[in-house]
Amino acid sequence: MISRLFRIGALAIAALLAGCAVPQKNVDYTAFRESKPASILVLPPVNSSVDVAASAAVLAQATLPLAESGYYVVPVGVMDETFKQNGLTTADEIREVPAAKLREIFGADAALYMAVKQYGSKYAVVSSTVTVEVDAELVDLRNGAKLWSGSKVVQQASGSGGGLLGMLIQAVVDQIVNTLSDRSYAVAGMTNNMLLSAGQPGGILYGPRSPRYDTQ
Q1: Residues 18-71: pLDDT tens digits?
Q2: For 119-139, how does the pLDDT look when each residue is reduced to its tens digit (9 = 90+)?
Q3: Mean pLDDT for the chain?
Q4: Which of 59, 76, 110, 138 could form a disulfide with 37 if both were Cys (CB 3.0 to 4.6 A apart)?
Q5: 77, 29, 53: which is closest to 188 by C-alpha?
Q6: CA-CA distance, 165 to 116, in Å (whole number)?
Q7: Rg of the chain taking only CA atoms, in angstroms
Q8: Cα(25)–Cα(98) distance, rounded to whole angstroms?
Q9: Backbone angles phi, psi at 198, to 5 degrees
Q10: Nearest to 60 by CA among 17, 9, 14, 119
Q11: CA dihedral for 147, 59, 62, 18, sign (positive or negative)
Q12: What is the average per-residue pLDDT within 155-166?
């Protein structure tokens, strides 16, 4: 019964989801083009949201859009274990490691610093909204120069237009779906894709492993 409600709720929400994103400002790519980074180290995001799972959720889904954009990305497991072996276990501690030291340890050309500003669901009587907001900054580990920065907010709202009864039923379905699955995790993946994929307005440039390298 619960699985059936889950499927029904998922289909209903998929039909009603509405996403929004904050547009990017004009970006100066001069330093990025001069640096020509080929490899990127993604650091654990600093989390200022109320959900303790936010940092791990965003980190787990940051590698794919960068790799598909043409970069070699240091495996998250390697990064995490290396810091643990050196006594660094929090994103705030890791953020304080000098760029030159990160370059020495991992050999990457650049590091991606991320911050999760919002992550999670907010419920009203007849609707719910999932919001994920992520800031990112790409830094050259060879000289400490900032190559690129961006920010993305994605919201997905669900509700019902079928009168008060329909809205109340939809709210119950939303609560069931959110209990059985983490919609915030999926929205975090969308946020990362929009923020970290090359070819997006204000996004990163294509890397040397992409056939579109040097086309922007």
Answers
A1: 344 444 457 789 999 999 999 999 999 999 998 999 999 999 999 999 999 999
A2: 987 765 556 788 999 999 999
A3: 83
A4: 110
A5: 53
A6: 36
A7: 19
A8: 28
A9: -65, 150
A10: 119
A11: negative
A12: 61
Fold annotation for 26-155+184-196: Rossmann fold (3.40.50)
Cα angle, residue 189 at apex, residues 184 and 192 outer, rounded to 5°: 120
Single-letter amino acid, residue 138: L
3-state per-residue secondary structure call for the chain: CHHHHHHHHHHHHHHHCCEECCCCCCCCCHHHHHHCCCEEEECCCEECCCCCCHHHHHHHCCHHHHHHCCCEECCHHHHHHHHHHCCCCCHHHHHCCCHHHHHHHHCCCEEEEEEEEEEEEEECCCCEEEEEEEEEEEEECCCCCEEEEEEEEEEEEECCCCHHHHHHHHHHHHHHHHHHCCHHHHHHHHHHHHHHCCCCCCCCCCCCCCCCCCCC
Q: Say if CB 192 and CB 66 are below 8 A apart.
A: no
| Residue bearing tokens 């779906």 | 177
